[in-house]
Amino acid sequence: MALRLACLACGQGNRIPEARLASGPKCGTCGADLIQGKPIEVSFDVLERAARIDDIPLVVDFWAAWCGPCRMMAPEFAKASATLKGKARFAKVDTEAFAQTGQRYGIRGIPLMIAFRGGHEVKRQAGAMPAAGIIDWVNDLAGK
Ligand code: ZN
Predict the structure, then answer these.
(1) Could you tell me the residue ranges of all domains in the chain?
(2) How far does the centroid of ligand 1 lie from the alpha carbon of residue 40, in Å?
(3) What is the pTM of this model?
(4) Please, which residues have CB within 8 angstroms of residue 3's CB and are 6 or more apart in sequence?
(5) Which of 38, 71, 112, 141 gets the highest tally of CB atoms within 10 A of its CB?
(6) CATH homologous superfamily of domain 37-143?
(7) Which residues have their alpha-adjacent CB atom under 5 A from ion ligand 1?
(8) Which residues are the active-site residues?
(9) Is 96 exposed, middle or buried (0-12, 13-18, 19+ CB in 10 A)?
(10) pLDDT tens across 99-123, in order?
């Protein structure tokens, strides 16, 4: 079975056989690693693309530099992304640089995590969480 994944660097859609997920698949257009085990800073356009097509969970941290709890959560989010490498991809969107995210995703406060899969929002969570909490939260998506 082939999975669809948007490249988090350039936004290009890629089809990856499920069996190749663990062997370092790269974007056919720009060559970036599709599976990285760390949060990738994305633009609004790349977020839109990935949220629409990704077949494995895309976990997005909506943050801003002025937000203290966001900065506290950043290393926890990074830890969780390393633990869940290959099971979910982690992205970060700067809500100040990309102000249109607020209205598009109905954001009332940050930090906010939203998980997308198969073109839908699956789950959202407001407020900072430790790495263990983020990992549980993402693992729980499997049943949804
Ligand atoms: Zn690419």
Answers:
(1) 37-143
(2) 12
(3) 0.96
(4) 15, 16, 17, 18, 21, 55, 56
(5) 112
(6) Glutaredoxin (3.40.30.10)
(7) 7, 9-10, 12, 27, 29-30, 32
(8) 67, 70
(9) middle
(10) 999 999 999 999 999 999 999 999 9
